[in-house]
C-alpha cells in the first residue's frame, strides 16, 4: 500500500461515508481519517506533531461545522505552521454556493482550492496528482 | 626778609584776632600784678618777723635779767645761814631783799625741804611746814635743782598764797652737806610786767608762755590764747632756767592774706580792663579787614561767574582785535561751533573763517564801528568750520572801551542759527509746496474770510445762543441772512474751484456765488451760520450750487478754520467736492436695490444674510413670514434667532456643519428642520454661499427653501425602500439557506447514485441504497423546516390576538416540566396575570418554548439551572427578557451565526440549529427584534422586543 494520507473534516455523516468509499476506490491513499469538526481534527494534528508522526498530505475541509468551523480551523493550523515538518494540502469541500466563502478561500494562501460538493472520484484523483 | 614777613604776619595774626590778643594781654598783666603783690606780701611778712623776733628777744633778755636778780637774792639769803644752819636776821634781810628785787613777792628758806622761814610771812602762812621733797607735785622740780646744784625755777603753778607763781629754788650746802633750799616766790604777773610784756602792741601781737609738764611731758600754756598757732604767725624762744618757752604771736597774720587777696583782685580787674580795651582797640581794624576780605571774595566770585559764563555760555563769545582780526579771547562754544580748539582759533583771524559772500558787509560794519558811525551792529553771516562746512550765525558786535573811552577791541557774540536757517528753508519749500497743492488740487478749494460774518452775528447777539433760536431767527429774517451771505470774503480760489463754477477768475466766482438762489441753498447757509454761532470750527453738508452757466451741481461743502484763526474766523478753507455724479450713481444703486428687494420677495424661499462668526442675521426677506410665520423684524431683533429656532434634534449637527463649512470657506447646501411660529416643524433646504473680501469672510448669504412636503414624500419612500430591501435581504438569506441545505442533500444523493452505479457487489449496493434512504429522510425534514420558515416569512394566516402573557409562560413551563424536574431547575418570573400583549399565539408559544428549552438544554452541569423571565419596558417598547445561568456562548466568535439556520455550537446531539432561526423569523414577522447577551460560563440573556 502507498502511505499517502488524507483527512476528511465534515459533520455530515453520510458525506463522510461516501468519501471513505470514493477514497477507497481511488486506491492511492491510506484509509482516510475522518473528523466531525475542526476541533477534533486540530487535536489529532497536535497529537501527530507531539508524537512526531506523519502529517496528512491532504485535508478536505468543510466550512459549516459545530464547535470549530473550517475558518476557525484555518486560524488554528496557521499557529501550528512552524511545528509542522510539511504543511498539508488543504482543500475546502463545501456545499455553500455563497460568493464570499469562495473569495475567502481564494484569499487564504494556505488553501489550495475550493471544491463544491459532490466530490467525484475524478476530483480526488486530480488533487492527488497535484503537487 | 623772611623773618620780617614772619613778624608782620605774626602781628597781622594778632590784629586779626582781637579776642585772643585781648586775652593774652589780660593774662600777662595779671601775672605781673600777681608777682608784685606776692613780693610785697613777702617783704612785709619778713619785716614783721624781724620786728617780732626783736621784741621777743627783748622780753627774753628782761626775763633772764630778772631771774639772775633772783639768783642773787637767793644767794644773799643763803648767806644768812650760819654754821649751825640757822639763818640770822632773816626777816630784816628778807625785807631788804624784797625791796631790792621788784619781781620777788616772797623769800623762803627751806631746810631739808621743809618750808620754815618765809618773808613776809603774812599771806604765806599756809605754806609753812610744807615738806617740798615729800610733795608729789613739787618733788621732781625741787630735786632737779639739787641734782644740778644750780638754781632752778619751778612752775608756774598755783600758789598756796593764791595766783600763778614761780618758785626759784637755790640748793644750799653747809659744809658740803645739803642743807635745804633758799627760794624766791615770784608772781608770774609781776614777772611779765617787769619784763615789758605789757609794753607790746596787744592789738597786733600776743604773748604766750609754756612749759612741758614734768609729769605728762605735754606742753602747757599759762596765758590765755587769743589766736591759734599757724605755721608762721609766731616767733619763739626758750628760757633755760625754767625750761620755759615763750612766744610772740602775730594776731594780724591772716589779715595780711586778705589784703593780699584784695590786691590780687585789683590786679585782676586792672588786667581785665586792659585786655578788654585791647580787644576794643583791635576789633575795629579786624572788622575792616573782614569787610575787605568779603569784598574781595565777592569780586573773585563774580569774576569766576563771568569767566564761567564766558566759557560755558551756550552762545559763542569772543574778544576780537579789529585792527588785526585776531581773537584775543574766545570761549568754548565759539570753538565748538567751528570745530577748532582754542589754540587754533587764536592763530586765526575772523577774516579767514568768514564766508566770502558775507565778508564785505562784515568789514564794512567793523569800519563803521571803528569810526564811531555806529555803536554796535548785528548781522546774519556764515562761518566755515574746520571741516569746511558752513555754519549760519547771528553775530552781535559791540566795542570794548577803555577808561578814556577809546575803543580797544570788540566783543563778538555769535549764535548758531544754522538749524533755524534750514527750518526757514524747509518752511519756504513747504509753503511753495502747499501753495501748489492748493492751486493744483483736483478738489475745488477756496480760502474765505468769515470774520465780518462773525462780527455781524455778534452784533445780532446770536453767538452761543441755542441752535434752534439762531436758526428760526435767520429763517424769519431772510434779509439779514442775505446780508450775512454777502459778508463772506473770498480770499483765494484754486483752479478746480473756478472750473466747478465755470468761471475764469476770482471776481467772476464771487459774482457767480453771490446769491442764495433757492430755499435749499438758503437753508443750507442758515445751517452754516448756526455752526458759526456755536463756535464750531468745521462744517460739512451736501448741498447744491449753481454755476455761471446756471447749471446745478451737487457738492459736498466742507469748511475748516485754519488753526490759529478759530476766534476771528479770518481764514477758512472751503472745499466743494463735486458729487453730482456720485449722487446720480447713488440713485441708480438705490433703484436697483429696490428692484432686487422686490425680486427677492417674489422668490419662493427665504433670502438671507448673516455674520459668519456668530450666525447673527443681518437680513431676511419677507418670505420668512409665509414659510415660518415669523416677521423679518422679529427675526432680526435677536442675534441668536436662527440658532434658537432650529429643531432641537437638528441643532447641534446643523451648527457644527455650518461652522466647519464656513471655516473651510466652502459654499454649502444642507437640510434641517426649524420650528415655525405656530409650532410646526418645517423642513428647510438651505443653500449658502460664502461672501469674502480679501480672503476674509465678510458674510454668509443664502436661501432657505421649504422642503417639508418633498421630505415627507421622501420619508415615505425611504420607509418603503427600507421595507423592500429588508425583505429582499431576508429573501436572499433564505435563498442561501435553501440552496445550502438542499445542496448538501442533493450532492450526497448524486454521490450515492454514482456509487450505486459503480458498486462492485450487491452488498455494497444495498449499503448505498440504505444511505440514500437516510438522505431522503433528511431532505424531507429539511423541506418541512423550510416550509415552516416560508410560512412565517410570508405572514400567511398570521392572526394577532390580545393574549395573556402569564398563561402562555405557564403553558410553556408545563411542556418542559420533565426537564425542570430532572435538572432541578428553578424558574423566576415577574410576569403577573394582568399583562396582556398583542401577538400571534402560536408564535409566542414557539418562541417561549425554544428559548426556555434552550436554557434548560445548555445548562451548566456544575450548578442548578436558574431561569428568570421578566417583562419590562424600554423606550416605550415591551420586552420579554429571559435569563439563564447556563454555559453561555462566545459571542465574539459566534455572534453572527447564532440565529442562523442549522447553526449549532455544541456537541450536544440534540442541537439541530433550527430553533433560534425560527424564533428570530417569528419575532421579526411580528415586527419585533431579538437580541442576545452572553458570557461563556456565566449565562445568557435573550431579549424579545415586542413591537
Task: Note down, in words, how this protein is organized.
The complex is a heterodimer of chains A (131) and B (947). By secondary structure, chain A is α/β, with parallel strands linked by helices. Chain A has a single domain (6-129), classed as Response regulator (Rossmann fold, 3-Layer(aba) Sandwich). Helix content of chain A is 43%, strand content 18%. Chain A contains five helices and five strands. Chain A has a five-stranded parallel beta sheet. In chain A, β4, α4 (99-107) and β5 (111-116) form a beta-alpha-beta unit. Chain A is globular and about 35 Å long. Chain B is an alpha+beta fold and 947 residues long. Among the domains of chain B are: 315-421, PAS domain (Beta-Lactamase), CATH 3.30.450.20; 441-585, Beta-Lactamase, CATH 3.30.450.20; 603-706, Beta-Lactamase; 707-794, Helix Hairpins (Orthogonal Bundle); 796-946, Histidine kinase-like ATPase, C-terminal domain (Heat Shock Protein 90), CATH 3.30.565. Chain B is built from 29 helices and 31 strands. A five-stranded antiparallel beta sheet of chain B has the order 2-1-5-4-3, sandwiched between helices. In chain B, strands 11-10-14-13-12 form a five-stranded antiparallel beta sheet, with helices on both faces. In chain B, strands 16-15-19-18-17 form a five-stranded antiparallel beta sheet, with helices on both faces. In chain B, α2 runs antiparallel to α6 (253-312), α24 (762-794) runs parallel beside α29 and α25 (805-815) crosses α27 (841-857). The longest helix of chain B has 61 residues, at 18-78. The radius of gyration of chain B is 82 Å and the shape is elongated. The two termini of chain B are 147 Å apart. The chains are: A alpha/beta (131), B alpha+beta (947). The interface between A and B is medium-sized, with 21 and 26 residues.
Amino acid at each position: 500500500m502507498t502511505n499517502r494520507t488524507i483527512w476528511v473534516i465534515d459533520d455530515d455523516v453520510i458525506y463522510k461515508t461516501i468519501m471513505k468509499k470514493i477514497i477507497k476506490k481511488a486506491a492511492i491513499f491510506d484509509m482516510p481519517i475522518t473528523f466531525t469538526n475542526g476541533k477534533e481534527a486540530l487535536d489529532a494534528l497536535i497529537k501527530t506533531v507531539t508524537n512526531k508522526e506523519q502529517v496528512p498530505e491532504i485535508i478536505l475541509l468543510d466550512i459549516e461545522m459545530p464547535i470549530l468551523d473550517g475558518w476557525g480551523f484555518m486560524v488554528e493550523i496557521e499557529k501550528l505552521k512552524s511545528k509542522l515538518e510539511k504543511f498539508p494540502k488543504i482543500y475546502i469541500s463545501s456545499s455553500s454556493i455563497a460568493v464570499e466563502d469562495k473569495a475567502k478561500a481564494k484569499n487564504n494562501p494556505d488553501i489550495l482550492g475550493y471544491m463544491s460538493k459532490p466530490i467525484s472520484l475524478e476530483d480526488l484523483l486530480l488533487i492527488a496528482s497535484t503537487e | 626778609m623772611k623773618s620780617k614777613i614772619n613778624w608782620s604776619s605774626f602781628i597781622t595774626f594778632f590784629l586779626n584776632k582781637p579776642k585772643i590778643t585781648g586775652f593774652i594781654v589780660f593774662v600777662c598783666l595779671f601775672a605781673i600784678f600777681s608777682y608784685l603783690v606776692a613780693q610785697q606780701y613777702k617783704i612785709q611778712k619778713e619785716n614783721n618777723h624781724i620786728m617780732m623776733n626783736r621784741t621777743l628777744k627783748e622780753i627774753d633778755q628782761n626775763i633772764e635779767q630778772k631771774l639772775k636778780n633772783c639768783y642773787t637774792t637767793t644767794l644773799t639769803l643763803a648767806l644768812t645761814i650760819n654754821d649751825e644752819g640757822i639763818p640770822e636776821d632773816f626777816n630784816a634781810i628778807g625785807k631788804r631783799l624784797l625791796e631790792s628785787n621788784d619781781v620777788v613777792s616772797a623769800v623762803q628758806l627751806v631746810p631739808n625741804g621743809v618750808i620754815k622761814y618765809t618773808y613776809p610771812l603774812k599771806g604765806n602762812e599756809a605754806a609753812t611746814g610744807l615738806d617740798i621733797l615729800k610733795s608729789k607735785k613739787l618733788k621732781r622740780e625741787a630735786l632737779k635743782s639739787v641734782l644740778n646744784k644750780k638754781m632752778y625755777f619751778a612752775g608756774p603753778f598755783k600758789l598756796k598764797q593764791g595766783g600763778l607763781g614761780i618758785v626759784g629754788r637755790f640748793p644750799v650746802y653747809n659744809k658740803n652737806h645739803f642743807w635745804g633750799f633758799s627760794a624766791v616766790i615770784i608772781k608770774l604777773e609781776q614777772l611779765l610786767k617787769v619784763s615789758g610784756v605789757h609794753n607790746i602792741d596787744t592789738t597786733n601781737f600776743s604773748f604766750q608762755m609754756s612749759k612741758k609738764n614734768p609729769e605728762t611731758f605735754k606742753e602747757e600754756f599759762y596765758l590765755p590764747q587769743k589766736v591759734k598757732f599757724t605755721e608762721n604767725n609766731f616767733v619763739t624762744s626758750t628760757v633755760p632756767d625754767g625750761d620755759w618757752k615763750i612766744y610772740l604771736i602775730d594776731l594780724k597774720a591772716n589779715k595780711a592774706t586778705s589784703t593780699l587777696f584784695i590786691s590780687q583782685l585789683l590786679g585782676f580787674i586792672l588786667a581785665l580792663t586792659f585786655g578788654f580795651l585791647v580787644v576794643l582797640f583791635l576789633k575795629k581794624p579786624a572788622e575792616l579787614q573782614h569787610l575787605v576780605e568779603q569784598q574781595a571774595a565777592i569780586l573773585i566770585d563774580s569774576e569766576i561767574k563771568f569767566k564761567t559764563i564766558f566759557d560755558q555760555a551756550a552762545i559763542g563769545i569772543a574778544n576780537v582785535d579789529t585792527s588785526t582780526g585776531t581773537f584775543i579771547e574766545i570761549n568754548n562754544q565759539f570753538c565748538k561751533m567751528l570745530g577748532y580748539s582754542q589754540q587754533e582759533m587764536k592763530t586765526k583771524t575772523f577774516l579767514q573763517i568768514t564766508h566770502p559772500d558775507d565778508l564785505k558787509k562784515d568789514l564794512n560794519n567793523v569800519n563803521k564801528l571803528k569810526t564811531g558811525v555806529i555803536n554796535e551792529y548785528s548781522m546774519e553771516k556764515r562761518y566755515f568750520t574746520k571741516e569746511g562746512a558752513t555754519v549760519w550765525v547771528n553775530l552781535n558786535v559791540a566795542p570794548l572801551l577803555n577808561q578814556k573811552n577809546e575803543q580797544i577791541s570788540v566783543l563778538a557774540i555769535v549764535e548758531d542759527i544754522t538749524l533755524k536757517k534750514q527750518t526757514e528753508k524747509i518752511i519756504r519749500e513747504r509753503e511753495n509746496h502747499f501753495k501748489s497743492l492748493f492751486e493744483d488740487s483736483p478738489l475745488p478749494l477756496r480760502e474765505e474770510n468769515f470774520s465780518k460774518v462773525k462780527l455781524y452775528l455778534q452784533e445780532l447777539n446770536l453767538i452761543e445762543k441755542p441752535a434752534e433760536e439762531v436758526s428760526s431767527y435767520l429763517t424769519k429774517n431772510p434779509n439779514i441772512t442775505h446780508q450775512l451771505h454777502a459778508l463772506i470774503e473770498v480770499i483765494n480760489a484754486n483752479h478746480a474751484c473756478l472750473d466747478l463754477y465755470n468761471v475764469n477768475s476770482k471776481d467772476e466766482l464771487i459774482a457767480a456765488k453771490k446769491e442764495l438762489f433757492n430755499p435749499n441753498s438758503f437753508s443750507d447757509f442758515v445751517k452754516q451760520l448756526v455752526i458759526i454761532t456755536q463756535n464750531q470750527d468745521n462744517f460739512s453738508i451736501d448741498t447744491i450750487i449753481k454755476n455761471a452757466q446756471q447749471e446745478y451741481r451737487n457738492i459736498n461743502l466742507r469748511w475748516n478754520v485754519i488753526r490759529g484763526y478759530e476766534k476771528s474766523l479770518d481764514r477758512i478753507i472751503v472745499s466743494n467736492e463735486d458729487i453730482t455724479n456720485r449722487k446720480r450713481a447713488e440713485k441708480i444703486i438705490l433703484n436697483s436695490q429696490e428692484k432686487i428687494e422686490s425680486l427677492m420677495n417674489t422668490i419662493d424661499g427665504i433670502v438671507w444674510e448673516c455674520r459668519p462668526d456668530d450666525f447673527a442675521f443681518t437680513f431676511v426677506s419677507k418670505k420668512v413670514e409665509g414659510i415660518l410665520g415669523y416677521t423679518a423684524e422679529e427675526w432680526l431683533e435677536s442675534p441668536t434667532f436662527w440658532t434658537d429656532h432650529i429643531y432641537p434634534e437638528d441643532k447641534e449637527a446643523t451648527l457644527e456643519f455650518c461652522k466647519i463649512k464656513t471655516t473651510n470657506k466652502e459654499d454649502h447646501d444642507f437640510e434641517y428642520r426649524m420650528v415655525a411660529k405656530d409650532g410646526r416643524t418645517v423642513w428647510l433646504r438651505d443653500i449658502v454661499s460664502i461672501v469674502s473680501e480679501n480672503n476674509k469672510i465678510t458674510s454668509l448669504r443664502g436661501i432657505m427653501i421649504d422642503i417639508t412636503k418633498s421630505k415627507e414624500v421622501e420619508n415615505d419612500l425611504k420607509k418603503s425602500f427600507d421595507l423592500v430591501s429588508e425583505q429582499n435581504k431576508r429573501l436572499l438569506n433564505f435563498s442561501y439557506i435553501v440552496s445550502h441545505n438542499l445542496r448538501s442533500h442533493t450532492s450526497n444523493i448524486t454521490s450515492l447514485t454514482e456509487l450505486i452505479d459503480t458498486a462492485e457487489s450487491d452488498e455494497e449496493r444495498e449499503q448505498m441504497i440504505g444511505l440514500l434512504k437516510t438522505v431522503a429522510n433528511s431532505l424531507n425534514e429539511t423541506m418541512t423546516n423550510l416550509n415552516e420558515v416560508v410560512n412565517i416569512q410570508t405572514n400567511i394566516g398570521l392572526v394577532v390576538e390580545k393574549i395573556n402573557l402569564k398563561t402562555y409562560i405557564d403553558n410553556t413551563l408545563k411542556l418542559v416540566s420533565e426537564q425542570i424536574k430532572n435538572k432541578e431547575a428553578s424558574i423566576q418570573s415577574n410576569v403577573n396575570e394582568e399583562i396582556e400583549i398583542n401577538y400571534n399565539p402560536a408564535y409566542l408559544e414557539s418562541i417561549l418554548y425554544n428559548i426556555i428549552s434552550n436554557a434548560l438544554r445548555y445548562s451548566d452541569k456544575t450548578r442548578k439551572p436558574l431561569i428568570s423571565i421578566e417583562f419590562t419596558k424600554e423606550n416605550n417598547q415591551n420586552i420579554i427578557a429571559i435569563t439563564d445561568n447556563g454555559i453561555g456562548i462566545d459571542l465574539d466568535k459566534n455572534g453572527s451565526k447564532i440565529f442562523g439556520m442549522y447553526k449549532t455550537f455544541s456537541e450536544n446531539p440534540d442541537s439541530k440549529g433550527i430553533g433560534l432561526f425560527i424564533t428570530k423569523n417569528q419575532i421579526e414577522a411580528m415586527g419585533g427584534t431579538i437580541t442576545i447577551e452572553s458570557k461563556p460560563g456565566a449565562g445568557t440573556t435573550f431579549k424579545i422586543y415586542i413591537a
